[in-house]
Design goal:
Elements lengths: L6 H12 L6 H28 L2 H9 L5 H9 L1 H39 L5 H38 L1 H18 L1 H17 L14 H13 L5 H13 L4 H4 L1 E2 L6 E2 L4 H10 L4 E5 L6 E6 H8 L11 E2 L3 E3 L4 H11 L3 E5 L5 E6 H9 L21 H6 L10
Parallel strand pairs: 2-3, 6-7
Antiparallel strand pairs: 1-8, 3-4, 4-5, 7-8
Helix pairs in contact: 1-5, 1-6, 2-5, 2-6, 2-7, 3-4, 4-5, 4-7, 5-6, 5-7, 5-8, 6-7, 9-10
Length: about 400
């Protein structure tokens, strides 16, 4: 049977479905509908690729002269407008697909049904076939193609290969953005005005800004994906957590501080140095609330070699004082600015409450650092490592109060 035998029924069904004759329904179903789906896919892929691509990666591509990289960089520099253009394109393609595509497919389905049933259908049956069967079925088919091929697949490709997709779509998207710029300005201006009327700033953007908590989640996801080693992930997480800690959280408490009184006899000084865990010791006068300086034990070795003359004041460095509620990151900057490795922690009344060293901050990132003082049983000096004359120089001078 020839399809031309059912032309009156086809025209009737088409007019009922769309209200007008838009031309050859098979041409629309085979050519126009796929083109509209591809157009929608283009704008979806462009939006997700521009949001997902890393700016540092784009800058590297520009520096190497990769084709299309400058177009991507231009789109990223105007990201709000580029995203608005993709949303406009998606809306246009979706509306056109619903308006033309559904009608064309419904006509094809009606034509197929008429060809299958043969001539003789009355107008009422044809109307029912077009509206109750072909129309809903066409809507289901259009929705499936639109979501799967026009949304999900391009989104997945763009998220998995943002660099490649961005390089491919940036130039045509920039052209479309330029052509649609008057309409985009109108839409953005209207949206911003309405947002300000609702008490919002109207300045929302698509910048990739993340809180510390979000960065921690990104590090965990990256570790689970196998891109960084577990110890590297731990270091990064500890650095982020360090920003929320105060000096008082990680300091050495006052009662655990090994310190020297300025008038301490040389023998006791040497004993304190031997038993201490730090190469620097606070020196106080009278009590621990009156810290007058910091002494480096390397300087004490020189002092002990001066024939019994031990004057701690001559070996003191100025004291770096830190507040107990000071952020650890601020204390770290103070260490760097003053070239100090140790700070005395005081409370609001100026009383000494603890001590903080650069090693304490480092251990918050990499974990406990144990040296030969922490594990003496595992850190033995080899025999004859030092000449006996050097060891004798470290002994306290006679009559210093320590034999």
């Amino acid at each position: 049977m020839m399809l031309s035998n059912y032309t009156p029924f086809v025209v009737l069904a088409s007019d009922v479905v769309a209200g007008e004759n838009i031309g050859n329904p098979i041409l629309f179903a085979v050519v126009v509908v796929p083109l509209l789906v591809l157009l929608n896919a283009f704008f979806v892929a462009a939006e997700f690729a521009l949001v997902a691509v890393r700016r540092t990666r784009v800058e590297t591509l520009v520096a190497h002269g990769v084709r299309g990289a400058k177009s991507v960089d231009h789109a990223l520099n105007n990201l709000n407008r580029a995203v608005a253009a993709t949303q406009l394109g998606i809306t246009i393609a979706s509306l056109a697909l619903g308006w033309l595509g559904e009608s064309a497919i419904a006509r094809c389905l009606t034509l197929l049904a008429l060809w299958w049933t043969g001539p003789g259908l009355d107008a009422e049956t044809t109307w029912w076939l077009a509206h109750s069967v072909a129309g809903p079925l066409a809507l289901i088919m259009i929705t499936f193609m639109h979501v799967v091929f026009g949304e999900l697949i391009p989104k997945t490709i763009a998220l998995e290969q943002p660099d490649t997709v961005a390089l491919a779509v940036a130039m045509p998207l920039n052209i479309f953005t330029q052509l649609a710029s008057p309409f985009l300005r109108l839409m953005n201006g209207t949206a911003n005005a309405l947002c300000r009327g609702m008490g919002l700033t109207g300045k929302g953007d698509h910048a990739s800004l993340h809180s510390v908590e979000e960065l921690l989640l990104l590090v965990q996801d990256t570790e689970e994906a196998g891109f960084i080693a577990p110890d590297q992930a731990d270091y990064l997480e500890n650095v982020f957590r360090l920003t929320s800690k105060r000096v008082g959280d990680i300091m050495i408490a006052r009662d655990l501080i090994a310190a020297l009184e300025v008038s301490t006899p040389p023998g006791q000084i040497l004993e304190t140095v031997r038993s201490g865990a730090h190469t620097r010791l606070p020196v106080y006068e009278g009590n621990m609330d009156n810290i007058i300086g910091i002494v480096n034990t390397k300087d004490l070795f020189y002092v002990f070699s001066l024939n019994g003359i031990v004057i701690l004041q001559d070996a003191l460095y100025p004291t770096l004082f830190l507040e107990v509620d000071m952020p650890v990151t601020t204390a770290l900057r103070r260490f760097k600015q003053t070239h100090r490795h140790m700070g005395i922690v005081r409370d609001a009344e100026g009383k000494t409450v603890g001590l903080l060293t650069l090693e304490d901050v480092l251990e918050e990132i990499v974990g406990d650092i144990e040296d030969e003082h922490d594990r003496p049983s595992q850190a033995r000096l080899p025999i004859q490592s030092f000449p006996m004359s050097a060891i004798k120089k470290l002994q306290p001078p006679p009559g210093s109060g320590k034999s």
